Target: LPPG:FO 2-phospho-L-lactate transferase
Amino acid sequence: MGLSGPVVALAGGTGGAKLAAGLAAVLERPEELVVVANTGDDVEQYGAHVSPDPDLVAFWLAGRIDARGWGLEGDTFHVMDGLRELGVDVWFNLGDRDLAYGIERARRLAAGDRLTEAIADLTRALGIRSRVLPMSDEPVRTFVRARGVERPFQEFMIVGRAAGPVEGLEFRGAAQARPTAEVLEAVASARAIVIGPSNPLLSIGPILALPGMREALRDSTAPVVAVSPIVGGQVVKGPTAAFMEWAGQPLSASGVAALYGEVLDGIVADEPLDPAISPSELAFHRAELLMADAAGRAALARETLAFAASLGDRARHR
Model:
């Protein structure tokens, strides 16, 4: 693997955001990191354009994530309290500063700016030196059907409490959307591409559903490695198990690898691969996956980058 070009991370949810923070911490220059974030979870709410995954990545990179695991540390909720006093059903809870970012983003989009530009300004305001790119400037929305009810992703998670069994998953608008020029340029020039330990269907699935994205990953000369979101045979957070079951894959690193298929050169996991499920030529690196603190995030990031570097020649000739 060459020394030039960025490290590109595909991320969504807490696992991907935490690994992105680890990558930024171990790289010689945080500017070397480009995070491509899922926007299928985006929602228009309270007059704001909320981008949960790009914002989650940004808050982790800025070191300002709240102990809840979402939102800004120390944020207040006065607007939500005021809406409740007015009788509004506040099912989607946003902190005041979090809401301010979404309102400004909505204003920028209404004025004709690209989502990429609006998110770049947010990251600069937070003092982030890495780049956070939305997967697309065009709207893609994830819908989930579970227990006979179809809902947008946020409603499935919050109102429906992410209760399965899952009966369907759709990325509306994905067929008409495109990865941004910035995303494609980063992938083409990358020295390593890391798929974070995110839900492979909900968080990474919308990114890979964009026309041309899988091809861009396959065509890149950089090694593409995934970090499994399955820790000790269990899911750390979120409804990954229900979606793996719906997809007909076991809750294992092998099941995750099978979903990513031909885009992968290797996977980092804490369990051996099942050759009957995962591609036989897939490289494997065993590592401790639980990122309990900054040291754990940095250790996993360092191991993942070293593993990717070891696959450089192999990836160039795949």
Notes: The chain has one domain: 7-140+173-316.
